[in-house]
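Reopening this ticket.

The earlier resolution said the output was attached, but the attachment link was broken on my side. Pasting everything inline this time so it's all in one place.
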Amino acid sequence: MGAKSAIYGVGVRPRRSTSAGRLLWRLGLLGLIVGEGIVAASATWVYFAARSRVVAPQDVPAGSTALVLGSKVSDGEPGEYVRARLDTAVALYRSGRIAPLGVVEFGSAG
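Inline output:
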């Protein structure tokens, strides 16, 4: 076999991945699939466990406690998601359905 045959691939066996590399790839893929399954099962459990506990603002029992979760505030103004939560909490407070509000902020506004 001459130099030309090696250049053009004649008589040269293709390189196969090692069994360790293949095993590592398969274990990684299996880990990803199992991880996705755990996340999906957890999200499904939370949905079914909490669906009976979520009520419309007008159905909140008097004397309840509200926890308003937020997100980042830019230039002193809450985003649209936080604004809607705060508006609902204020309406519930004014209607007497929840106890007085307290605001706790973690982090900075930018």
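Reporter confirms the inline version is readable. Residues 58-94 form one domain. The helical segments are 3-7, 19-50, 80-94.
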